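Escalation from tier 1.

The customer reports that the assembly of two entities below gives different structure tokens on two consecutive runs. Tier 1 could not reproduce it. I'm attaching the input and our single run for tier 2 to review.
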Amino acid sequence: MKLQNSGKLIAAITGLFALGNAFAAPTVTRLNPPSALFTYADATPPYISRFLPAQRFDLQATIQADAGKTITSVVFKVNGTPVTAAGGASAITSIGGDKFSATIRGYSNSTAGVKTLVVEATQSDSLVATGTGNFEIASITLNAGRKAKNIIWLIGDGTGIAHRTAARIVSKGASLGKSNEPLAIDTLPVTGIVVTHSLNSIVTDSAPGAHCYSTGNKANNGQEGVFPDDTTDKWDNPRIEHMGSYLARTQGKWLGIVSTADVEDATPAAFAVSTQDRGAGTGICDMYLDEAVANHNLHVLMGGGRKWFLPLDGSAGAGSGRVNSSTSSGGDYVVPSDVQAGWSVPAGAVDPNRNLIADFQTAGFYYAPDLAGLNAMTGSETKLLGLFNSGHMDVSYDKIAHRRNAATIAPGSLIATYPDQPLLEEMTDKALTVLSKNANGFVMMIEGASIDKQAHNMDTERWVHDAIEFDKAVAKCIAFQAANPDTLIIVTADHECAGIAISGGSTVTDAALQSTAVGSLKGIVGTYDNAKFPAYTIAGDGYPTTMDVDYRMIIGYAGNSDRYETWRSSPSYNVSPQARNTTTGYLVTGQQPGTGVQSAVHTASDIPLSAGGRGAAAFTGVFDNTDAFFKAMQAAIGGSK
Amino acid sequence: MNLKSLSFVLPVILLTGLGLLMLAGKDAATVAQNRDSDAAASAVASPVVPYEDSSSVALKFEEIFVMPAGPKGLEYTAKAWALAGKRVALTGFMLRNDNIDPAIFFFCETQHAYDEREEGLADSLPPSLVQVILPVKKNSAPAWRQEKLTLYGTLELGPRQEQSGRVSHIRLQCDAVTDAATGVPLELRKPVALQLGRAIPIPNDLGALPPSTTPPPFFNPRRNRNSTTHHPDKL
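Tier 1 run:
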């Protein structure tokens, strides 16, 4: 055959293949766990999905069938071996548009190494679609030393390096070129840098930003405890076993979750809940009891969010009923039967009239509605539920101001409604008391939530104050670790928020600042030499006497929206940066294209991590946020010198 | 129409349209005032009459619930409960959020922001948040205003599941909105098309990017790696 003819033949064959492919649907359009091999035909590391030996996760594939056809059988193969599902723990579900979702729930693999995952889906006309991906089972070095009995994750939400520096300048001071004292965080001996990208963006939100520490895996923004799928059901996504569940069933550890946020919020929920919607509401809180208490040994849950725990119908009767329930039937959860079978969890229910506080109490939990309730504990409690606000707890700036003077109630705060909210260090103290009762140890997440929330709001004084509060919780944990050496402390964040930079110091006194004309406010920013060393005083309660000192610290925001800047504290809480100080401040234009309520945003900047105690030495260098999970689990499972 | 006349007519049309759009964006009250000022200088502008409603009882936000809250939840005060179903006057601020609803906005005691995209339903909103329902005006929706307002209408109490997923506990069927300082009636509802600052939808809020029309490996973030073991062209 002549060369030119062979070329035509090749073209013809290629065309036939192309024609054949055009009719060769079905196709696999998604394969979980996520992998670069499936998405980009790239079999090389870094492997996107990694798991501990025996850590459970779901296998899932979405198959696009030909019009009018169905998918009749699906086989998942790991390294060529078909996976057999436990009874009832698999499903093939039509999800509309001739698409089908196939799942095997609760798969696990105990042999370390990279595994090839192949899915073969057979259509009703016997056509077969295949997809190929991979995942890795991490290698844990056993008998590497003493194990970390207790693991404490402290997450300063949104806390980048500058948030820490600001807290240090304000609470400890600096002079003659040196910090006067370190933060408690600074005393932890090991430091690392963490890369925070989520599965679908360089900029993560708080759900995948915390999910990575609890599961060792990536998630899409807005999702926690799950991989993304193609259904609209927020409760049926492929799951990954949480650290709490894994350590409960393999080591008998207890789990604690403590936050200054609403406990329904992303960071606390990412340590126990499985949903594709971080705003799923009531169902998230139901899962704490139905799944986490039962399967993760959840023994401590504290924060805000009481509204989710109260029945919807509580308001009957004039002026006597509970009316602060935001329980909504739309927020309740019901999981499909394959999830129930594969994960040994109840079905859930649409039950807007559920009294979840009462159900927790029935399950043996001591319930504290305020600080007085915490202080009334006898010391014998082994389960603790604390719900101190209807939504997010108020920030330490306003809590402390109210403690110092009961008449001080910041407009916009909920201090008048919930006047006795504990500080994070007080919550930490009680949580440690309860969890340390377990001879097998515990894992706990403690979140300083409003460092992020007030950085979003560009309310400098309030996020700095909360960063100081967070550091005091760290100090509690360091003291605990000193008495309990087999404790690992990890202090980090989920992402950076607002692009914080400490750009200088004021060149005027606070009195002068207050009398400075709006048009001259920009001129008071001292940079370089003129920043000098802002000096704050600390009151007997451990917090700044005032944030409005002479020659104060100046904060800039790179991830900002428009705001009106006065360089002074805002008497009101949670006022929009565009509505705050409109007549007393000058306009600083932002870069964010946000609509409506513009606020500062998360950034993709790396974040600092500090660690101390058993296994801390591994947390050095620059590493992915999922790596932090495996470092901690090495300490818990294999031990560390 | 030749090119020359077109070059004249088009700017006129555009400028006229722009002027109409700007005009439509103003409050009815403001527009009325502008018209007054545009009238002959000799004509005396008719004074704006403050809204009067002697049948309404003033209700403060702090009078809605017994404070502080008890260990389980909140309770309505006797005063609030007695006013359920009756006309009240509430003074406060519109909540600043970016959701647009043709009839509903939130009202609270202090200036407050709510970023629903960031916070979802886990928020810092006051429990005394009032859901205000205005009569629907075609193609319009309540637009956020910064100033303090006094609202008049019928009070409703009790939990109700809303379409947004939120459960409202206090609602006001509102028939009059006034400037709290002057009592002058205000029209909050503006054309939705002009509320560009709030109306831009955020697609795929759960994080999914719009699908790329460029197939892999060309839309492959991993393609720029310099690795001998990397085969981005292998599908």
